[in-house]
Amino acid sequence: MNSIKVGLLGFGTIGSGVVKVFQQNGSLLQSRLGFPLELTRIADLDITTDRGVVVDPGLLTTDAMALLDDPEIQVVIELIGGYEPARTFVLKAIANGKHVVTANKALLAKHGEEIFAAAEAAGVNVMFEAAVGGGIPVISAIRENLCANRVHSLFGILNGTCNYILTEMEEAGEDFATVLKDAQAKGYAEADPSFDVEGVDTAHKLALLCSLCFGTRVDFDSIYTEGISKVTALDIQYAADFGYKLKLLAIGKQVNGQIEARVHPTMIPKNYPLADISGVFNAVRLVGDFVGPVLLSGHGAGSEATASAVMGDVMAIAREAGTGSRLRNPPLAYPLSEIGDLSIKPMAEIASCYYLRFFVKDQPGVLGAITGILGLHDISIESMIQPHRHAAEAVPIVLMTHEATESNVRAALAEIDSQDVTQGDNLFIRVENKLD
Fold first, then answer.
1. What are phi and psi of 401, to 5 degrees?
2. CA-CA distance, 415 to 51, in Å (whole number)?
3. Could you give the CA distance from residue 30 to residue 314 in angstroms, rounded to a whole number?
4. CA distance to 102, 232, 235, 307, 368, per residue, from 390 (Å)
5. Could you read off the pLDDT of 14-47 as tens digits, one per residue?
6. Which has the closest alpha carbon to 225: 245, 246, 207?
7. By C-alpha distance, which of 406, 210, 202, 195 is closest to 300?
8. Please, is 353 exposed, middle or buried when counting C-beta atoms within 10 Å of its C-beta (0-12, 13-18, 19+)?
């Protein structure tokens, strides 16, 4: 084979990282393939801004369709992000018989079924290692190295922005708003951070992981999603007092023919390896029936780490093309005909331990009223923290429950709120004591 020609859609942060890989490691890529990879065209609406890399102006174009219609380009890298025009461009590339590599988790979580079906019909690959976990090779691990296992569960810290914020809240004792401003100043959080801090980005990634692990279609809109904006530094301190750390966790489990797919703040024991993932790092913990627990961690975002994952996919496609192989490994680890439709367990039926935090009136009988209502809803208390009283102030009462169902917890909290014994915002956080 003479060469594999590649086109790049999107010349932003990750796109510039991809260009750096071509420029700095081109000879390494060639030696590992036995033939060269050539970046032959880059399309972006803005081709004048300095990206920190020097590019031959002849490679640049603002016409994405010219790139997609170029008969010499065999692989298209899509790094535009969002739903449109990314969906239109990816489907056009597939229709033109080109392989696609993308980092666009939102696109695949929303339109993956359509895209994967089009790719299968056209006999081309769609690969997306960079869409989940940045530079962590979790997709290839599930699709290839762990493919002999039934995956029982997965737990993921999948958003570096949230993990950085929670780590800083823990270490500095600062509140959410203060740490968020710091994260924005350092470039770890967007000007509008809602996509990250409200858990949407993590839910997109969880949808893909659940499909890969459990062989089922997952409707992104059916994933319960809750962010970290209501968590306080006080809650993180109380979690530590109970022996836990707080993480925004993506949780996927297969139990009795259903799957759990949920994203929310979660307390996990301090002595679990996942609890040690701090700052902007990401991690995924999988439990397979033969391999047991596997933990993968690393940089979950950033130009270079994500570009590494993108180029790993490009190399995989090039190797297959070099041997004449096509579609050796389906995108979701199963042929589309084998993908099932397992139902997602409603959150009301989820069973978990719970952290409950109330601010109450400093008067006799309040604690008894709260515990009495919890007992009526089959919620038993494992342990409690009641800090020193402060006259004329609302005081916190913090409880850790034994396992209870979500519906009972929500019903109990609604009844407690109706009794006029609490003041301010009460909070509950789910607790995972067994990551298996």
1. -95, 160
2. 56
3. 12
4. 55, 20, 18, 54, 19
5. 999 999 999 999 999 999 999 999 999 999 999 9
6. 207
7. 202
8. middle
Hey, which bits of 386-432 come out as E strands? 395-401, 404-405, 427-431
Rounded to two decimals, the pTM is 0.91
Residue 75 exposed, middle or buried by CB count within 10 Å (0-12, 13-18, 19+): buried
SS3 290: coil
Q: Which residues are catalytic?
A: 205
- The per-residue pLDDT for range 224-243, each reduced to its tens digit, is 999 999 999 999 999 999 99
Residue type at 7 in one-letter notation: G
The pLDDT of 195-206, averaged and rounded, is 95
For CA atoms 13, 246, 283, 263, give the dihedral sign. negative
Whole-number pLDDT of residue 214: 94
Q: What percent of the chain has pLDDT over 70?
A: 96
Neighbours of 325 (CB within 10 A): 10
> Strand 4-9 and strand 75-78: pairing?
parallel
85 prior amide bond cis, ω within 30: yes
Measured CA distances, 278 to 169, 205, 270, 302, 305 (Å): 11, 19, 12, 16, 17
Average pLDDT, the chain: 92
Given a contact cutoff of 8 angstroms between Cβ atoms, the answer to whether 248 and 265 are in contact is yes
Alpha carbon distance 260, 128 (integer Å): 23
Identity of residue 281: F
Domains of the chain and any CATH numbers: 4-135+303-330 (3.40.50.720), 138-299 (3.30.360.10), 347-431 (3.30.70.260)
**Low-confidence winner among 369-373, 385-389, 408-412 (lowest mean pLDDT):** 385-389
